[in-house]
Specification:
- By secondary structure, the chain is of the alpha/beta class.
- It is 31% helix and 18% strand.
- The N terminus is likely disordered.
């Protein structure tokens, strides 16, 4: 939804979206033992011993493999589902090479009985019933996580699976942040939460405990904003479970990096590219603004990313020829901006070229790389109904719906806009939260939102440095307490050095 300052939605959102979820002994490997008769030749008995050792080791590996349930945090969009299926095949191939009994490998988008499966906690009771007696670990990963299965077995083998464990690569906030509702404000570094890109694991005793807790105290209707932080909070507080245990073998370094020799997991995809970037003329950019921000925000857009867009229009409550802006005839509202957004959707469908397959709607304080977005869109089929951006959720523990949060940018395929407007689903008021209404509408149509972590609702400093280190971001949002031009040229500009006012500038991300 729009976060235009002067419009009080952002603070209201933070207030109402309060969180309700506010080294062990080494295992010894078992080896088979053959008794060598006295006087026997070593040369003849050694192959038998090796064969016996190998057989015993294989049986142990096979049992360990069977004890792990792999869950890929997949999505139903064709690009993402294919990547998840590729990862599943790779895991099973590695497992087949190690042992006879293959592990279960599940894709979340194929598991969901309702839209909230991606939030993980609604799955706990089913996971406990199905795997609670015969498995040891649930290992979660993203579609671009790369797993060395043998190394993962070795890593998990260091931990006593009969106890409660929550394992992952630790992230933490260096300062309190709005996306975590300023949790642990006195010292936010004390609370660790997992980087999903590296994979993370729950021991079955912990899964069973969480399932029991969720049965007695079902999830309440609330917002899902940063799932990895909220999962860690729920496990620790509501589930009365352990804090995250950092595991150095869970990594997000590139698979080809020299650093990954010790890693059980790596990460393979910083910015997807599936062929040539889409053409500039195939992306129509709509900027939401209002008269009171023409003088301070629009100049930032023009100084930074406007030059990357071939088709761009500014939509306002006042026609200003110097920009220029288009007056949609929709009065400005202090929050929500649903009426303005739907007017933009209508205009895109009825007044832009029918050959333009993509629409991007951003706020006037969104910082975005259209260059990188064009690369990203090369992976998506414009003939499918695509609604893409940073995914949030509302009430997903009790039904609810997912939505693309507007500040980081909302991307629509033309066919998605056509299906939406044909449905007659509209704003319940002119100042309704536009992104949430869109989420409700697409949910009702059975069109899932597609999440990309490269879109960001907040500023770079609102995210852990470790989280951003394996991204090539597409967008950030908000000018509050930052130099937005500096942020753009540091994080989003097509080249690391850009000409700014005739001078070469280079900024260090660590300074931001």
């Amino acid at each position: 939804m729009s976060r235009e300052p002067g419009c009080q939605r952002w603070l209201l959102f933070a207030a109402c979206a309060h969180l309700c979820f506010l080294l062990p002994p080494l295992r010894t490997r078992a080896f088979a033992v053959s008794v060598v008769p006295e006087g026997a030749e070593d040369e003849t008995e050694l192959p038998v011993l090796q064969k016996s050792e190998k057989s015993g080791t294989n049986r142990k590996i096979s049992k360990e493999l069977k004890g792990i349930v792999f869950i890929i945090q997949s999505q139903s969009n064709s690009f993402h589902s294919k990547r998840a299926e590729d990862l599943k095949r790779d895991i099973l191939k590695q497992a087949a090479d190690l042992g006879k009994e293959l592990p279960a490998v599940l894709l979340i988008h194929q598991m969901d009985r309702h839209e909230g499966a991606w939030t993980i906690l609604p799955l706990m009771r089913d996971l406990s019933v199905t795997y609670g007696k015969n498995s040891s670990w649930i290992f979660f990963c993203e579609e671009d996580t790369r797993i060395q299965v043998a190394k993962l077995l070795e890593t998990l083998g260091r931990f006593d699976g009969s106890k409660e464990w929550f394992l992952g690569k630790a992230l933490y906030d260096e300062e309190s942040t709005i996306i975590h509702h300023y949790a642990f404000a006195e010292n936010p570094t004390v609370f660790k939460f997992p980087d999903f890109a590296a994979g993370w694991a729950l021991s079955i005793p912990l899964v069973n405990k969480l399932a029991k807790k969720l049965k007695s105290e079902p999830l309440k209707s609330d917002f899902t904003i940063d799932l990895k932080h909220e999962i860690a909070l729920y496990i620790w507080q509501k589930g009365e479970g352990p804090h995250l245990t950092p595991v150095p073998e869970f990594c997000t370094d590139d698979v080809n990096s020299y650093k990954v020799d010790h890693c059980a997991t790596t990460f393979s995809n910083f910015l997807p590219l599936c062929g040539e970037p889409v053409k500039k003329e195939d992306v129509f950019v709509a900027v939401k603004t209002c008269r009171k921000f023409h003088g301070d925000r629009i100049p930032v857009v023009k100084q930074t990313w406007e030059r990357e867009a071939a088709l761009i229009e500014y939509y306002s409550d006042y026609a200003d020829l110097s920009i220029p802006t288009t007056d949609l005839g929709i009065p400005n509202t202090d929050r929500g901006h649903c009426g303005k957004t739907f007017a933009i959707l209508e205009r895109f469908l009825n007044h832009s070229s029918p050959r333009t397959p993509w629409l991007v709607i951003v706020d006037d304080d969104t910082l975005i790389s259209i260059f990188r977005l064009r690369k990203l869109l090369s992976c998506y089929d414009p003939n499918e109904p695509v609604f893409l951006g940073e995914r949030y959720g509302y009430g997903l523990g009790t039904g609810g719906y997912s939505y693309i949060t507007g500040g980081g940018g909302m991307v629509f395929s033309r066919i998605a806009v056509q299906k939406l407007l044909a449905s007659k689903c509209r704003c319940y008021s002119m100042d309704a939260p536009d992104d949430m209404v869109l989420g409700m509408c697409f949910s009702g149509l059975g069109i899932p939102v597609t999440h990309s972590p490269l879109f960001h609702q907040a500023r770079p400093m609102d995210y852990p440095k470790g989280y951003l280190s394996h991204q090539i971001p597409v967008s950030f949002h908000k000018h509050w307490n930052i130099d937005p031009v500096k942020v753009y040229f540091t994080w989003l500009a097509p080249n690391t050095e850009q000409s700014l006012n005739g001078k070469k500038v280079g900024y260090n991300r660590e300074d931001l």
